[in-house]
């Protein structure tokens, strides 16, 4: 049995397309096709069939796919354990960070982490939480900093870093600036710019304002663009309280119905944690992020089980 053949099969299953699998892993389509046929010959059952000209797994193929994923995960874990035994002096960690979180978190992580741990190099990728979780699950990222949700609970293991919440942000000249707390009804006719699909913000805001849909005129994950739209009085937004709290050109107010966000570091479910991954997780848990924000949530509320259940429900997507 050739492990590469199993990897080609797994990638084909992820895309349900030999063409897309070929493009992603830079292996010729005939090579992948031959590998799948070799697996079918070796194990004695058909893996795929064509339905309406679409590639689909057979019943045996679906069972085989689950076993292959489990086996390849074990192989990946073994490789990490072997590198730990070797005590390799230079290790690269592939870390995903959503763009908006990066604006106020990366300053505490870089260059501090690599100064303390020069043998561990961070390879950073800006990616929304939902897309990043998929990459972690597919072993394309080692770790992801993102927001906890029901979706992440099913895909990844995690450690909590801190809990924050979203606030409304708008021009100081907006009538909303006279309010101390923003009710949903106050936002009914306000143009909004929000983060795109794939982000925690998009699904949390859509869910929270389901009964009173916002007037969304733009989606952007660029803080500079969002800031321009607010400063020029073209739109408001709902965003992490840390992003604009010290910006004199932006007015921030808490929402009457808070949208909480638990910031976590994620890794592949049941995966082996290498020494480098453990070092980074300990480092980020010990980072002092609290100076970034004026907490709107009481500590007893954060620890309350009913609140934490509400938090996960509010970000279910």
What is the topological layout?
Elements: H1 3-15, H2 18-25, H3 29-43, E1 48-51, E2 54-57, H4 59-86, E3 91-97, H5 99-109, H6 112-116, E4 120-126, H7 129-137, E5 143-147, H8 150-155, E6 156-170, E7 191-194, H9 200-208, E8 215-219, H10 223-231, E9 237-240, H11 241-244, E10 251-268, H12 275-286, H13 299-303, H14 305-314
Parallel strand pairs: 3-4, 3-5, 7-8
Antiparallel strand pairs: 1-2, 5-10, 6-9, 6-10
Helix pairs in contact: 1-2, 1-3, 1-4
Organism: Anoxybacterium hadale
Protein name: LysR family transcriptional regulator
Structure characterization notes:
This is LysR family transcriptional regulator. The chain is of the alpha/beta class and 317 residues long. Helix content is 45%, strand content 23%. Helix 1 packs across helix 3 and helix 1 packs across helix 4. The strands form 3 sheets. Strands 4-3-5-10-6-9 form a 6-stranded mixed beta sheet, sandwiched between helices. Strands 1-2 form a two-stranded antiparallel ribbon. It folds into 3 domains: 73 residues, Orthogonal Bundle (Arc Repressor Mutant, subunit A); 119 residues, D-Maltodextrin-Binding Protein, domain 2, CATH 3.40.190.10; 97 residues, D-Maltodextrin-Binding Protein, domain 2 (3-Layer(aba) Sandwich).
Core attributes:
single chain; 317 residues; alpha/beta; Arc Repressor Mutant, subunit A; D-Maltodextrin-Binding Protein, domain 2; six-stranded mixed beta sheet; 14 helices; 10 strands; 23% strand; globular; disordered C terminus
